[in-house]
Amino acid sequence: MRQVFKLGSTDHCFSKTAFRQGLAVVLCLLAGMAQAVQYHDLQDIRQSSENYLRAQLGVDSNDTADITITAASMDYRLRLAQCDTPIEHSLPQGHRLQGRVAVGTRCTDELHRWSVFVPVTITQFAEVIVTTETVSRGEFLKASQLKLERRSLNFLHNGYLKSMKQAIGQKLKTTLAKGLVVSPSQLKRPYDVKKGQNVNILAKSDQISVRIKGKALSNARIGDRIRVKNTSTNKIIEGTVTYDGFVEIKL
């Protein structure tokens, strides 16, 4: 005789109830785990990276006149566990504290270890010499063609001048448009010593120094090596033009 067994309504309700209870337990466990994991505030990481660079540069956080330090926004999807110890920072070896810097930031507590690089931009400002009009190549700069203006130094890779005295009267090697920063490499500075000019030769060692008269055999600027002739002996020697106008010879 064939028997047919049917699932009764009571058993069916029981299976549904068990499933719901089990699901509720799993969801509660997941919720508890989610509440247990706390994430570190990304803004705090940015701020601590900026403060680290300020300390490296010796800049007060309230002083923004000559330098600004700004960390880039971090991806809001980044999930870093709450660090229970002070965050540590570092810089790549040999990295200059200028322009865009990648600050190594890490948590080293026993439970949560992570590390990220925070891009931070350092912008330095200074009063530099700029042109007030277009100045052609070969012209000698005049005071009316120049002014001091506050500019970012980050992209002035060819240098800059901070004093009007450094620029006035200097001859330009290239044409400069209005509003451009004047760099030392664009100036053709006059020779400090000219060929045939009488010069003072300073021959010195650790023990003695002797001053003699001489004559320059070529043009030179301060810091250049130059050949000169001792007018007393007609001997030709070589020395360096110094800031006080001497040609210095090492004995």
Folded structure, characterized:
The chain is an alpha+beta fold. It has three domains: 42-124, no CATH class; 125-188, Type Iii Antifreeze Protein Isoform Hplc 12 (Alpha-Beta Complex), CATH 3.90.1210; 198-250, Roll (SH3 type barrels). Helices cover 18% and strands 32% of the residues. It is built from two helices and twelve strands; from the N terminus they run ααββββββββββββ. A hairpin with an 8-residue loop joins strand 2 and strand 3 (99-108).
Secondary-structure topology with pairs:
Blueprint: H1 9-36, H2 42-57, E1 67-71, E2 88-90, E3 99-108, E4 113-131, E5 146-152, E6 171-172, E7 187-188, E8 198-204, E9 209-216, E10 225-230, E11 236-241, E12 246-250
Parallel strand pairs: 8-12
Antiparallel strand pairs: 1-4, 2-3, 3-4, 4-5, 6-7, 8-9, 9-10, 10-11, 11-12
